[in-house]
Amino acid sequence: MEFKAKDIAVLLKGVVEGDGEVLVNNVSKIEEGRPNTLAFLANPKYEHYIYSTKASVVLVNQNFVPAQSVPCTLIRVSSAYEAIASLLRIYEEMVRPKPQGIEQPSFIAEGVVIGETPYIGAFAYIGKGARLGNNVRIYPHAYIGEGVVIGDNTTIYAGVKIYYGCIVGCNCTIHAGTVIGADGFGFASAGEDYNKVPQIGNVVIEDYVEIGANTCIDRATMGSTRIKKGVKLDNLVQIAHNVVVGENTVMAAQVGIAGTTKVGAHCMFGGQVGIAGHLNVEDRTMLAAQSGVTNDVAAGSVFMGAPAFDAAKYRKAYVVFRKLPELYGQLRELEKEIQTLKSKQ
Amino acid sequence: MEFKAKDIAVLLKGVVEGDGEVLVNNVSKIEEGRPNTLAFLANPKYEHYIYSTKASVVLVNQNFVPAQSVPCTLIRVSSAYEAIASLLRIYEEMVRPKPQGIEQPSFIAEGVVIGETPYIGAFAYIGKGARLGNNVRIYPHAYIGEGVVIGDNTTIYAGVKIYYGCIVGCNCTIHAGTVIGADGFGFASAGEDYNKVPQIGNVVIEDYVEIGANTCIDRATMGSTRIKKGVKLDNLVQIAHNVVVGENTVMAAQVGIAGTTKVGAHCMFGGQVGIAGHLNVEDRTMLAAQSGVTNDVAAGSVFMGAPAFDAAKYRKAYVVFRKLPELYGQLRELEKEIQTLKSKQ
Amino acid sequence: MEFKAKDIAVLLKGVVEGDGEVLVNNVSKIEEGRPNTLAFLANPKYEHYIYSTKASVVLVNQNFVPAQSVPCTLIRVSSAYEAIASLLRIYEEMVRPKPQGIEQPSFIAEGVVIGETPYIGAFAYIGKGARLGNNVRIYPHAYIGEGVVIGDNTTIYAGVKIYYGCIVGCNCTIHAGTVIGADGFGFASAGEDYNKVPQIGNVVIEDYVEIGANTCIDRATMGSTRIKKGVKLDNLVQIAHNVVVGENTVMAAQVGIAGTTKVGAHCMFGGQVGIAGHLNVEDRTMLAAQSGVTNDVAAGSVFMGAPAFDAAKYRKAYVVFRKLPELYGQLRELEKEIQTLKSKQ
Q: Shortest CB distance from A143 goes to which of B141, B324, B345?
């Protein structure tokens, strides 16, 4: 399929600058632009590419002022990032496979309820009494334990494992290999050995949650481990038993949250962040990648380091850390000078 | 089912304080207590909840002295934590699904030996010559490679993959998605490229080991990677080739141990700890979360930081680290003062 | 099977020192040597074991000079490490299972092309239009999405999930549980919520790549996430959308690379390294375990720390960091001395 630049501009409520008749049949990145593709420029870091890109059309922000002439047609939109996202959604709708129906062999136990227009892939396992809403997609090798409930329009990718009694909301996406509801890590010391603390709670995932691949969310000891509405978790994240993650909080890959910690709403955590157990990390906390949180964190904090504290202060301390050998020498020097001064008195 | 507080007290060898006739039909957390539920108070951090909890009955330690009056019946026991654990075990026994038999379709190759009262889920794969003890439970999508041996009473959850020739003991639990016996990461540099070092050993997991979800334990280059009796590993842990983990050692999520390192018995590692290869970490070592160990560690050490050293010393050094910008200023100040002193001489 | 030391020496182009008639029937590690086994000594750290090993034969480097007499036959070779690797390859060829054919039940969709001498395990799923080269091995529970292409001689272990449209080269090995081509983690903020940025690109894995277990490589937003020829990734590694990893680069377990970062060729990353997004890490960069990279890195750098900088400088700074409490005391002392000096003037 091909589209004219001017037609795309209409679709995106943008303004064409340059040849509106040029044809586009695919998207590309501005640094790898090819003729008859559309690219976008949102991050100023990439601006220099626009002066030599081979892309025929580039989406830019309304207020973009080129430093020199550009070799492509521009479409000015209020947000280049949002515009490309909406174009990509249209494109994706055309290319992403949309499997339907119930493939064989699959295993659907007694008492399972399945809504309208399902996809259940081959080798999917749906345990006793599980209930699936409308338009649910369960990919091959997914394991849905006894009594699990999955809301409308939710997609469970290949090989996801959901233990018995867990609940997943509507419009969620869970990527391949993720494990929901394994036992929390609870052991009571009994002399030299440990006794396992039974984990009888579950996991509740609310609506509009997206979870990456090979992530783990453990069931609660009692009650529920809860992932609230709109949360986005990346790959290989660890959420321990009884953790609560607040609405619209976003965690990058390989983050780990220990047991019973409460994370507020609208937080953003970089990759490989670790948070100790039994803490309160309040709303809108931002944690730099690899931060290690060992105390409660007040709302709106921006933290860094391990143990983590105010990021601006951390950066300043780290500047001095890099100079420590020098400082050490200076201190020795001062000692000598003082000795000299003392000897002269 | 409902129980009277006084009957629970008898079961737990505890002493009732308050109304022994009050009925309980579920458990709850003290901070989320509901009427007719039983909660417990072990961690003093949660004491304030007991003065307003809605739970009807609370298990407390024998020596608990309320700071004010409590709105609930107390049951005093020698250890509230152990008492609740034993109650939870009884409760879990009632609610956790206990699947049995051999579901179809499953794949059981020639020469497989299966003990008494097995569970083999649909889509489980048992390779040639594998031997399963009595009461073994193999959940759906588990892959048991050729010649694997699994001891009595062991549970292998959904989608666990065990490569050929590995051995799992009795009374073990391995959670969903964990991979046992993939090749160790060994490559010999050959000019610009690498030659793979064949990994011909196996993994041996002894009795009473529990392993979390999506954890990886690589097979040995030669000999065995060994997880000794009573070890507990959390989710997303990495155990490299030829590592030995001593008895009853406990590792939290996302810990990584590099090749050929020996970890002693009764160690406790926080989340995201990393240990370099070819090291000896001796018995009863405790490592704070995110520690990075780069040298041998003597028995009983308590370490922190990366590279890790004595935790108490690390904390003291870190206190000063936070003040480094200030210190830097003070040092500059002293230099000036000395210049002034010198000029005056 | 048994071999004489002198026959092994011929095979490895080595020179026997001691009894060439001694028989060997297995390999062992030098520290756990048993009679009639062959061990090797490459790492000088292990030299002391050779003076008491029970192994009958030990492979050593040509230039090895024993500090005392050794209780075993030596075979001197140009590289003990390479020699043992080549012996292990021969041994492995004899013991590793080599499954063949198409097991049932498996799921092979319409339009799938399969090359010569395949192995397709039970419960493997091959989606519409996928193309598999010659000698491809797809283990049980692997999911090969629509239109995926897999080159000759590649092995896909149990439970690997490859999303639609991804490409895997020839002579690759992907270990169990790894997920290739899940959506990149891209969300555009929309007030309090997030809109998902569609991820319409794919993953391209070139030839001779080995990937460990439970690793994740996300598909590109647009274009391709690319793992170039000869790359080796360990277990539980995270490669985000649009990352490019250069030829023969090696990453240890639990490394995480954020979106759109370019990693050069011949780099070596220790375990748990994290690299922020949109960076250039040039060829032959070496990163110590747990390093956190937040800026571009020039070719050939050796970095450490978080944020990472020159490793030698980091180590020096860290030596002083450990002494900070002492330094703090000394600074206070100097202040006092200066006060004294001033008061005396």
A: B141
Best A107, A162, A216, A241 member to test B by mutation, with max B CBs in 10 Å, is A216
- Residue B2 makes CB contacts below 8 A (sequence gap 6+) with B23, B24, B25, B36
Residue A91, pLDDT score:
84
pLDDT at A165 over 90: yes
C-chain residues within 8 Å CB-CB of A321?
317, 321
Alpha helices in B57-190 (DSSP H): 80-95
- Does the pTM of the predicted model rise above 0.80? yes
Segment B107-114 shows an average pLDDT of 97
**Owner of token pair 């690390």:** B314
pLDDT along chain C (345 residues), means of 10: 89 94 90 91 92 95 94 95 87 89 97 98 98 98 98 98 98 98 92 90 97 98 95 98 98 98 98 98 98 98 97 98 96 91 83
Chain B residue nearest residue C142, CA to CA: B141
CA C257 – CA C263 distance, rounded (Å):
9
What residues of B are annotated to the active site?
Answer: 241
Contact C163 A176 (CB under 8 A): yes
Spatial contact of B231 and B217, defined as CB atoms under 8 Å apart: no
pLDDT in tens, B262-313: 999 999 999 999 999 999 999 999 999 999 999 999 999 999 999 999 999 9
C241 is catalytic: yes
- For residue B2, the distance in angstroms to the closest alpha carbon of chain C comes to 44
CA-based nearest distance C226→chain B, Å = 18
> Which residue in B95, B247, B321 is closest to A321 by CB distance?
B321
Nearest alpha carbon to residue A92 among C163, C138, B292, C106:
C163
Q: Do A223 and B32 touch (CB under 8 A)?
A: yes
* First CA to last CA distance, chain A: 91
Nearest to B231 by CA among B219, B217, B214, B221: B217
Residue B183 CA to residue B203 CA, distance in Å, equals 10
Q: Flag if B212 and A331 touch (Cβ within 8 Å).
A: no
CA nearest A317: which of B317, B314, C319, C287? B317
Strands C256-257 and C238-239: parallel
pLDDT tens track for C162-220: 999 999 999 999 999 999 999 999 998 888 899 898 999 999 999 999 999 999 999 99
Asked whether the beta carbons of residue A325 and residue C327 sit closer than 8 angstroms, the reply is no
